[in-house]
Amino acid sequence: MWDWSYVLSLLPGLLRAFLVTIAATLAGFTAAAIIGLCFALIGRSRFAPLRLAIRFIIEFIRSTPLLVQLFVLYYSLPMLTPISLSAFATGVIGLGLHYGAYLSEVYRSGIEALPRGQWEAAQALNLSRMRTWTSVVLPQVVPPIIPVMGNYLIVILKETPTLSAITLVEVLLAAKNTASVTYRVFEPYTIAGALFMAMSLALAFIVARIEKSMKRRYAG
After folding, report:
1. How many structural domains are present in the chain?
2. Transmembrane ranges (predicted)?
């Protein structure tokens, strides 16, 4: 039976853990968006060895599980180097690298879809390479790929429970810890699921609004 007094007693702890989940999601997505863009830009380098190297890195990251990458970053890296990161920082970097590899392909498809005339026009105006990317290419590439990026944002949210493997106490691990003490699993897991669903719907709504706003902006 659902016990409201029990729910009220565990809700503050689950909400605190859910704030960690939200922070890891947003930080991980930001890192993924930046890393993905860097990968995509390096992948267009005129230096062939650099292009091949980044292609290998992307395929390697995409071909190995996120959990294995987290274990390497959190447990193996401090043994091999002086670098030791907190569970949260490791989780953000792991999510950023893993989904940055996927987002690099999203950026690449958007860049390749840009008409060649845009590049030629920038060249005719004698724009620098940096100005071409910031003023011509990216403003036209980003709006069409926002829905796909939004999907990855939601995917990252749903992947945050994986971070419990490196001791980060996010909402699902908090629910599990609570259930292991009280032996009541229905309420904590139901609340955790409801929080994930509410956040997923909120993110989907925000992404849809941003997409609609940008469509109006560029249609005008």
Report:
1. 1
2. 20-42, 54-77, 83-102, 136-157, 189-208
